[in-house]
Amino acid sequence: MHKDSTHISEYKTLGIVLLILLFLTFTTIEVTSFHLMAATVLVALIIAGVKGYIVLTYFMHLKYEGILLRVLVGAVFLLYAVIVTITFFDYLYR
Amino acid sequence: MENHSNHIEEPRDDYAAKLGMWLFIFTELLLFGGLFLVYSIFRFKFPTQFHQAALELNVTIGAINTVILLVSSMTVAMSLAALQKNNKKLAKILLLITVFCALLFLVNKYFEWGVKFNEGLYPGSDLMLQLEHGSLLYFSLYFFMTGLHALHIIIGMIILLVAYFKINSGKVNIGKYALLENGALYWHLVDLIWIFLFPLLYLIS
At what angle do helices B14-45 and B133-169 cross, to 10 degrees? Predict the structure, then answer.
């Protein structure tokens, strides 16, 4: 079970992806220099999440892969979210 | 004149190879994910000490390293595209740039850690053991996570260099590029980890 046609990334696409990632990096640095207190972490993590999604989708080619890989990657992140949530529940209510 | 019918091509399943690399990547994600979880819990418990300790890190070097890795991710992805378009020369050049970026990252890391070591701050040092609990946890996590990440950079460099030499000899080519494709996937993982490591360690002040 595999795709017969191979998608080859365009150099231009990859270049644009890099520019977006660099922009998001500098945005993170700027935003975290404001005093948002507790929200700082959240904003930084959200931007990091967007960057991660872009790396996974374009650099790691998930956009052009079959459904199986995309579901598996999603499942792993979901599993991790569950682990983090349960662990925090434990610490919060000890 | 070589009799080509004597050469038996070993059966390959490139899709399985790629799936195998992805499965390995999942284990790596959970490995670093576990470390991030430890970081999260102790940051939750010692917010002020983590904030204070993070001020000791150099945001500029961290940012430069982030840029270096992002560029290297692009160059390795371009290298694969070049090989898939049968541009062997460009594939090799881009691969060398990627490895060079990795080397730059490690050199930066060397200087970063060097500064800390000179101050007497290293795992197990007297200075470190005298720190407050939260600060000690922060620096322990800093050294362990960036150290483990650097180890992955070294492994990635080796894999990509092997791919480079195999492209050179023709063993990795437009019809057989799983090594480069999966090596590139591993490299993107290394970049992905740093994308989270940088803000959580350097930017929490």
Answer: 160
In this predicted model, what pLDDT tens digit does every residue of A35-84 receive, in sequence order? 666 788 889 999 999 999 999 999 999 999 999 999 999 999 999 999 99
Using the predicted structure, report yes or no on whether residue A3 has a pLDDT greater than 70.
no
CB contact under 8 A, B15 and A48: no
Q: Render pLDDT for B170-191 as a digit per residue (tens, 0 to 9).
A: 999 999 999 999 999 999 999 9
Q: What angle do CA B27, B32, B14 make, to 5 degrees?
A: 35
Note the pTM of the prediction, 2 decimals.
0.93
In single-letter form, the type of residue at position A46 comes to I
Whether chain A has a CB inside 8 Å of the CB on B24: the answer is no
Token pair, residue A73, equals 């990657």
Best mutation target, B21, B38, B70, B180, to test chain A (most A CBs within 10 A): B70
Q: Which domains does chain B have, with CATH numbers?
A: 14-202 (1.20.120.80)
In this complex, which of A9, A11, A32 lies closest to B203 when CB atoms are compared?
Answer: A32
